Automatic annotation (TrEMBL):
This is Unannotated protein. It comes from freshwater metagenome. Residues 52-127 form the Thioesterase domain. InterPro entries: HotDog_dom_sf, PAAI_dom, Thioestr_dom. CDD domains: PaaI_thioesterase (cd03443).
Length: 139
């Protein structure tokens, strides 16, 4: 895998905090990270429900990882972001390979950020749409 594309604030954040234990357990790999756009991949294998489909909660973990990371880049260098609302609509199943999440900022404000995360399978088909709102806090 090539080196991720990180903004300066994202480099500092990634070095300081890492991606977190859950994201590591699920195999999430950051590809690109800034407040405006974040991209990551996650393997289907190891993250499935009993019928062999990518677990719906896995889509949410990928979405929250991307949206929260992007919000934390926005809050940097002094503030931090915490998720306060998340929702998802699953439209297709992934059964193999990797899925890719692309988070796009809808709103970057002083106290709230909103990101939409589109998660696609290896064929480029949309499998899930996640929306997350983060609260920006100051230390």
């Amino acid at each position: 895998m090539s080196e991720p594309i990180l903004s300066d604030d994202a480099k500092h954040l990634a070095t300081k905090r890492g991606v977190g234990e859950l994201a590591e357990k699920m195999g999430i790999e950051i590809v690109e990270l800034s407040a405006e756009r974040a991209v990551a991949t996650m393997p289907v294998e190891g993250n499935t429900q009993p019928r062999g489909l990518l677990h719906g909660g896995a889509y949410l973990v990928l979405g929250e990882t991307l949206g929260s990371f992007a919000a934390n880049v926005w809050a940097a260098p002094d503030g931090y972001a915490v998720g306060i609302e998340i929702s998802a609509s699953h439209s297709k199943s992934a059964t193999q390979g990797k899925v890719t999440g692309v988070a796009t900022a809808i709103s970057l404000g002083k106290t709230l950020t909103v990101h939409e995360i589109v998660i696609t399978n290896e064929l480029g088909q949309r499998c899930s749409t996640v929306r997350i709102t983060n609260l920006i806090r100051q230390p």
